[in-house]
Every structure is written in structure tokens, then in C-alpha cells.
Amino acid sequence: MIGMKPRLQMLARLTLVVLIALSVSCIGKRITKANVDQVAEGMSKKQVESILGQPNSSKSEDPTITKQTTYVYRQGKDTVTIIFKDDKVQSKVSTLSD
Predict the structure, then answer these.
(1) Count of CB atoms situated within 10 Å of the CB of 53
(2) I need a labelling partner for 28 at 20 to 30 A (CA). Which of 20, 57, 62, 80 fits?
(3) What is the CATH number for 38?
């Protein structure tokens, strides 16, 4: 049983580090004017998500002719809305200020 306490302490520390890493990775990316400006017409949803993270909400409309999805990002009082047509950015509207 000698050495058991240090092993438990090390396991507890490792568990804490893993939990902190997971909680930080689950937090969405901060929405800034600089990263919203990186989003350009024609980008895919995956490219937008790599810049802005997952949207706070999304809505898809799938008529037979065109598929449209709207991503909404909210941060405090600011909102960024990105409209995709056929899975490519068609437009974006932002209330972020400089």
C-alpha cells in the first residue's frame, strides 16, 4: 500500500486537467468583427464553423429547387446572421461594431 496516496493525487490532478480541457473546448469561439470579416461569400458551412464555431441556432428550408440554411450567432446584444444557399454563404448581416 506504500505509494498509493501519490498515485491517487496524480490521478486526481490528471482528471482535473482533462475536465478543464474539455470544458474549454466546449465553449464556442468568441464572435469578433475580425473573424466575421473572414467569412466570405461562397464559403461552405464547415469553413464558417471553423472560423466562428457552432451557431447558437440554425434553420433549414429545403424546397425542391434550392436548399437554404440560416445560421444565427448571438453574443450579448450582438447578432451575426449568415444565410447559406446550396450550402454556400450567400449573405451575412452583423450588428457587431468596430
Answers:
(1) 15
(2) 62
(3) 3.30.1450.10
Alpha-carbon gap, residue 26 to 28, rounded angstroms: 6
**pTM listed for this prediction:** 0.67
Domain count, the chain: 1
| C-alpha atoms less than 13 angstroms from C-alpha of 35 in its C-beta half-sphere | 13
Domain span at residue 77 reads 29-94
Nearest to 89 by CA among 15, 78, 52: 52
Task: Report how far residue 28's alpha carbon sits from residue 31's, in angstroms, rounded to the nearest whole number.
Answer: 9
pLDDT bin (cut points 50, 70, 90) of residue 20 is low
The three cell numbers locating residue 46: 464547415
